[in-house]
Every structure is written in structure tokens, then in C-alpha cells.
Amino acid sequence: MPALRLPRPLSALLALFVRFRPGRTPGRGRQGGQSSGWSVALLLCLAPLTGWCGETVDICYNWSCANEAPVSFTDPVLAGVALLLRDATSAADERERIALAVGRLYAEAARQSPIGADRPGNGADAESDGRMDCIDHSTSTTRLLRMMEARGWLRWHKVLEPARRAPFLVNQHYAALLEETDGPPPAALAPAPPRRAPAVPDYIPAMLALCDCQAVLADLPAPPPPPVQPERHPGGRYVVDSWFVLPGAAPLVLPLANWLKGEGPDVD
User: Fold this and answer.
1) Would you say residue 164 lies in a domain?
2) CA angle (218, 221, 226) in 5-degree steps
3) In terms of C-beta distances under 8 Å and separation of at least 24 residues, what long-range contacts does 41-45 make, across chains too?
4) pLDDT digits (tens, 9 = 90+) for 159-195
5) Stretch 14-42: mean pLDDT, rounded?
6) Domain-embedded: residue 49
7) Is residue 25 part of a domain?
8) Quick one: angle between helices 91-112 and 134-150, nearest 10?
9) Domain tally for the chain?
10) Containing domain of residue 135, as a range?
11) Are 241 and 175 in contact (CB under 8 A)?
12) Residue 265 lies in a domain
């Protein structure tokens, strides 16, 4: 089993605490055999502050994944993404929320790695350390989507291998790819039943029939409309293309067929 590697700030604090822990005089031997217990306690207390309990994803940059930077997403960041996706009400709604979630994660990655220098396309940042081409974006975005999928946050989609389009032999482009699934059963998503209108006594219609009481009839509550079921397209495929936007912005989400035809912003 590989040795546990702690973040440098946590390792330094842990070493200092073990050296100067209560009940020990610096420069003397161990007293009371409490080092291990105190070390574990400190580790548990400081883990949320260092992000050790979150998750780390490698982000590609400098074109064709020439370099990779480990980016740590803390529990509060991940909790925000989970809440965002949890409230999705349909596959289309989930795709919009996936785009927002990917943008949030890239914003965090830009704070921890050189990709803050990345610009849409390839031309505006061709000489910058941290630049990302479509291979970097499609690989990194797929990794972020797989993290969401592994945590059970995607209910209407599964993550596929990146998609490729090549309108010209030397003009290839890649993007992350999702496939819509059957999703949760409609009963699991049904909203709370609307409050029923108060019942009208049987004698009221008979009384109204004997007079011209259109104003009274207009005041009677109308029956609630039937619930509208969202459209479903199981098997439909959609690209999530972050190459077109700045780090932190919501990526482009398009049906695969549209993307293959070249749809998307005009960037170099």
C-alpha cells in the first residue's frame, strides 16, 4: 500500500504539533506515547482547511496535454456543485446546470494552476504558459464530468469518450461528450400535488341555474391544469465544449449533430 502523502502545509503543521505537543518538552524523548493520537486528531481537525478531504483532478494545459496540474476541489466547492445539480428537473435542465458546474470547477482550477492564462480558441494565447487547446479542454472537461458521474450527481446523462469532428483533414476538433439516459422515473420527480379547490355544495349549481349569475360563475375556482411532462430523448448525445470560453465561464453545450456541422462561436 503506498504511503499517505499529505499536502505540504498540513505536513508542516503536523510535524510542529508532534514536536511541541502538550506534555512534551522540546529536545526530550517521547512522553506518554501520545504522539500518534494527537497526530490523528490534528489531521482530522485541519483536513477541511487544507482541502484534503475533497477531490483532486489533473487538468491538462500547454496543448495536447503536454503538462498537467493537480487541482484540489474542497468539500465546500463540491457541495455547491452537488446542490446545483440536485435541483435539476429534466435532462435539458441538467445540461444547463452541468455547464454552470463545469464553469465553477474551471474557475477554481484557474486559481490553482496556470490555466488562468487560457483564452478562447488557440490564437489569443499561443505563447502563454497555461494555454489550452481542444485536446486539453476535452480531456480535462471529461475528467470533471466523470468526477460528477462517479459521485452520482448526473441523473439524466452518462459520460462518453470525447467526440471528434474533422470538417477538413487538418482542422480537427475535440469536445467532451454526454449521452442522455432514461433518467429517474417520472414519479420520483413529480411535484407536490396542488391544493384542491374547495368543494362546491350540490345545491349551488341548481340555484345558479335559476338566475343570470355569470359573475358568480366566473368566481368559481377552475380545475388545476394537468402537469406538463418534460421531453425526453434517451440516447441523444450532446457535447460540452469549454474551448470556446474563458476559464470559469459556462461551456458551450450543443447537440452532437449541430456541433459536427461546425456550430459554435467564431474563435481562432
Assistant:
1) yes
2) 120
3) 42/13, 42/14, 42/17, 43/6, 43/10, 43/14
4) 999 999 986 666 799 999 999 999 887 666 655 566 5
5) 46
6) no
7) no
8) 120
9) 1
10) 55-186+232-260
11) yes
12) no
